Task: inverse folding
């Protein structure tokens, strides 16, 4: 109660930011799997129908994507058709905020016990690589460097610009489509 | 690389030193346990290692109600179910696991079944499934390396599905770990060397990987020092029980370190090599350690340089310029490996193992980069990187 009175806006803003970032990332995951060969190659090893979830414990914001085959992801929003195969669970919305606002690297957050992994670890490792690739695509280089352990060498600026533009475009259309539906 | 946040947990009572086994009855009584079951393997029994444990209990009027001595090297769900059935039939109330990694993991899994009920251990796989304390559980390690006596994980093979099931929960930690030098006195030289190098790797990886923290660092450096000081002594004089105790303690300390700060690429490569080429875990650790440290070098220069103090002692450390210490640590490890090769042919390259072919390297690399431990390696590892490290480790 007391905490709520002291910082009502901040915590509310964080929650909203995390929800929004999950939406952006979910759409971006779907988009990037349509344009990036490397992400598709990584995702191809996942079983078809594989459900990946990121969530804030105990019952906060969620991001759910499904591998629909051939390395492509489908974004399910925040409700899963069945229990997720791999779930990355942030222990608190603050920790999700630190990671999703790129103040704490995903790998560091793992190492710092900020989140738990539930499910097959080898798939979780694969998904972490996909998320890293995604982050270096959609973020300006300076921020992406902060978010991932190593900025990929094979991501040259023109390619990055083109792909990022493509991804943003796809996200935008996806947003519009969702809004219309 | 300093973590701004960390967690550290180790509630295991460590009972270590001369005549440590004789404390088992007192400790069991303290937990109101009267009918212990021993879980072990044929090798341990044949080596006569159960005798002092049984004698220690009987002399205090505590009968070991049942002994299961058929744990295979790769324990399975069927074995766990069978042991749990015996435990229930014999109305046991506690478990003493005596052995190496497999016997200890089996003991942990049996404890889940007999405490939580049911026949199917697969139901409890994953992290954080268990919500309450299990039955009294003691571990007596008979190798000095795995550190399983202080880790909260067990791995059991589901033979029907052909997959390895991981179980993680702090409730899997034993109530006590009993470290008695008598239990490792008869380890053959190559096992002594390989398991000690496993402990060394646990310490070095936990000190140089992403989740390092001040508490695990303290355990890790102490473990590196003990292995460096005692391993060759024990190799030359296997009956040196003080040296044996040093190695056993180092193994437990390294176990406490890595269970709180995790391991990295040496283990990723080792797990993959173990699964594909069926090489012992400790052997793989010793083999890959310098090559991985070279790969990580620029990311871990500072902590690796600091380890020189524990690997070589204060004189060498002081005489080595700070900028050369990390390289000097790697050479110290290479010299130790050469010394072990001289004494027991512990392989230093994949070729020397005689069990790996060069065309398997791609498969090993592919598996290694999906191993969970790779997430904690300080440097990002691509498939190409893993393959390059393997090539350097080839010959
Ligand atoms: Fe190990």
Result:
């Amino acid at each position: 109660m007391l905490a709520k009175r002291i910082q009502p806006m901040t915590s509310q803003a964080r929650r909203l930011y995390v929800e929004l970032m999950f939406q952006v990332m979910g759409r971006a995951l779907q988009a990037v799997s349509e344009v990036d060969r490397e992400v598709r190659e990584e995702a191809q090893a996942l079983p078809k129908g594989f459900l990946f979830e990121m969530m804030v414990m105990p019952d906060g914001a969620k991001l759910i994507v499904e591998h629909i085959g051939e390395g492509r992801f489908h974004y399910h929003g925040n409700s899963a058709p069945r229990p997720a195969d791999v779930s990355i669970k942030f222990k608190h919305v603050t920790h999700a905020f630190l990671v999703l606002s790129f103040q704490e690297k995903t790998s560091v957050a793992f190492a710092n016990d900020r989140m738990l992994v539930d499910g097959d670890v080898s798939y979780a490792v694969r998904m972490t690589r996909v998320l890293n690739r995604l982050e270096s695509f959609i973020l300006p280089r300076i921020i992406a460097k902060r978010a991932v352990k190593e900025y990929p060498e094979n991501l040259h600026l023109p390619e990055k610009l083109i792909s990022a533009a493509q991804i943003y475009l796809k996200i935008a259309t996806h947003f519009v489509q969702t809004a219309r539906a | 690389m300093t973590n701004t946040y960390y967690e550290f947990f180790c509630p295991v009572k460590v009972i270590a030193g001369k005549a440590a086994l004789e404390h088992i009855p007192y400790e069991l009584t303290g937990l109101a346990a009267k009918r212990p079951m021993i879980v072990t393997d044929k090798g341990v029994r044949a080596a006569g290692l159960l005798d002092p444990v049984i004698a220690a209990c009987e002399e205090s009027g505590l009968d070991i109600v049942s002994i299961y001595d058929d744990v295979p090297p790769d324990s399975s769900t069927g074995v766990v179910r069978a042991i749990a059935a015996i435990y229930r039939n014999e109305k046991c109330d506690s478990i003493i696991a005596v052995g190496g990694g497999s016997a200890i993991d089996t003991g942990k899994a049996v404890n889940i079944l007999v405490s939580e009920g049911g026949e199917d251990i697969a139901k409890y796989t994953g992290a954080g499934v268990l919500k309450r304390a299990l039955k009294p559980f003691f571990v007596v390690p008979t190798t000095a390396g795995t550190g399983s006596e202080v880790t909260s994980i067990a791995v059991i093979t589901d033979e029907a599905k052909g997959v390895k099931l991981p179980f993680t929960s702090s409730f899997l930690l034993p109530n006590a770990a009993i470290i008695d030098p008598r239990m490792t006195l008869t380890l053959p030289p190559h096992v002594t060397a390989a398991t000690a190098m496993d402990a060394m790797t646990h310490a070095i990886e936990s000190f140089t990987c992403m989740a390092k923290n001040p508490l695990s660092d303290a355990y890790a450096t102490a473990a590196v020092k003990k292995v460096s000081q005692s391993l060759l002594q024990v190799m030359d004089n296997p009956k040196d029980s003080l040296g044996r105790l040093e190695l056993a303690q180092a193994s437990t300390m390294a176990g406490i370190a890595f269970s709180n700060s995790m391991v990295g690429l040496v283990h990723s490569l080792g797990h993959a090599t173990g699964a594909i080429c069926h090489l012992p875990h400790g052997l793989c650790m010793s083999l890959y350690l310098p090559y991985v440290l070279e790969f990580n070098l620029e990311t871990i220069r500072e902590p690796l340089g600091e380890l020189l103090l524990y690997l070589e002692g204060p004189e060498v450390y002081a005489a080595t310029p700070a900028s050369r210490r990390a390289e000097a640590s790697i050479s110290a490890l290479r010299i130790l490996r050469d010394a072990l090769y001289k004494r027991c042919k512990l392989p230093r390259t994949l070729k020397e193992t005689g069990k790996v072919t060069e065309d398997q390297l791609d498969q090993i690399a592919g598996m290694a980069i999906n191993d969970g431990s790779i997430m904690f390696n300080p440097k990002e590892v691509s498939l190409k990187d893993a393959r390059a490290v393997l090539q350097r480790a080839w010959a």
In short: The interface with chain B takes residues 107-108, 110-114, 116-119, 121-126, 128, 132, 148-150 of chain A (CB under 8 Å). The beta strands of chain A are 51-56, 62-67, 73-75, 86-90, 115-119.
